[in-house]
Amino acid sequence: MSYEFDKNIPIYLQIEEQIKLNIIKEIYIKGERLPSVREYALMLKTNPNTINRALLELEEQGLIKTQRTSGKYITEDEKIIKDLKQQYIKTTTEEFVKKMQEINVSKKEILELLK
Fold first, then answer.
1. What pTM did the predictor assign?
2. pLDDT in tens, 32-54
3. How far is CA 31 from CA 23, 46, 101, in A?
4. Angle CA(56)–CA(59)–CA(63) in degrees, nearest 5?
C-alpha cells in the first residue's frame, strides 16, 4: 500500500480518514482484524506513534475495537458503520453543492446534474 501524504494535514488524520474510507468501501469488513501498528508503519512508511494515534482516534469513535493479545478489529456494529457512511455522504454532498454555488450554478442546475 503506497500513500502520498498531504503536507498541510496531520498525517494521523489522513491515516484515520483512509481507514474510514476503507471501511465505507468495504475494503475492511466488519469484524476484520486490522494490520498491527508495526505493519501499518512499514506499509505507510511512517512512525508507529502516528499510526497508534490514528487508531486510538478510531477506537474512541467506536469504529475499531481492541482485543487483548489478538489486535485491533473493525467494529461489528452495523449502525456505527452506517452512520459513518451517511456522514461521509452528507459532508461530500455539502462540499459539492458549495463548490457549485461558488461558480454560480443554481440549485435547479445542480439537481439536473445529479439526475
1. 0.85
2. 999 999 999 999 999 999 999 99
3. 11, 25, 41
4. 140
